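re: ur question from earlier - yeah i can do the single chain one, its not a big deal. heres the input i used so u can compare w yours
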Amino acid sequence: MQVLITSDIAPDWSDLPSDLVVRVCEPEPDAIEVALAGAEVLVSEVLPRRGASTELRWVQLLSAGADQLIGHPILERPLLFANAAGVNAVHIAEYIIGRVLYHFKEFKQFDQLQRDRCWPRDRISLARPSLRDLKAVIIGYGGIGRETARLLSSLGVHTSAVAASAGRRLYRGYLPYDGIGDPLALLPEQVVAPSDMAALLPEAHIVVLATPLLPTTYHMVHATMLASMRPDAILINVGRGALIDTDALLSALDAGHVAHAYLDVFEQEPLPESSPLWQHPRVSLTPHISGTMPDHNAKLRALFLANLERYRAGRTLLNQLDRSNFS
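and the output i got, formated as tokens:
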């Protein structure tokens, strides 16, 4: 079996099974298209510019998102597609919790006091309430959403989830550790479909975006949704930038409909210097870093090997994608 992998992960994948014929190319569309001839499996975050070779059967994406598939000509072939959702679920969930604690405990004020070299006489004025009994809405209840719910619930936060369809469903995706997440979807007080999301927002103190970018989720956070949120609520986006209508978000922040936006992803990346997000007082930015981790390639390798076993046995892949979502 010939496998084509991209050079950005190849150094950490040197000990794959000996019966695989592994070839390496640059993670560029044109390079992949040339090197793909004869390969049965493509392991890459990047897709060839046009279609696929006749030998190709399975594309293992190295990204948690799969928006690169939207409208791509590679969908014309009856291929198997799987992504890397869940590989960085723990890291992203911890990032979300860090943002929640930073905001509601107002740690920023201590940095300013340190710069001023002065404590207030009445230190009780610095105290902030517990997070217990806050309400969170997690939009997207895959690996990231479920681990986020677990951590928030441990802090006493009441969670509700928005999933592709209503109801509690078993998680069948990949997770890098035992004992994490919420496999049976028991933690949220309710799991609703996107059509019922609007009813949850007016009471939510925390809104987390951890859903994929699909044609159906593009600009799902729009002016009407933002206007329905609590004025003291925060919005955290670790999904994709285009989940949010950026102009509508800026208007909502200016109007006081939302207290603060914590953004790790943007509609245009890298974020242009001209973007008003850089200096907005109610926006905090990070450079698409929430899922970055030192052992990222090793965990991707573990996912690939698990799916290789499934592929050879004719079983459903971990994180196998529904092609109809991208056409």
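The two ends are 29 Å apart (CA to CA). not sure if urs matches, ping me
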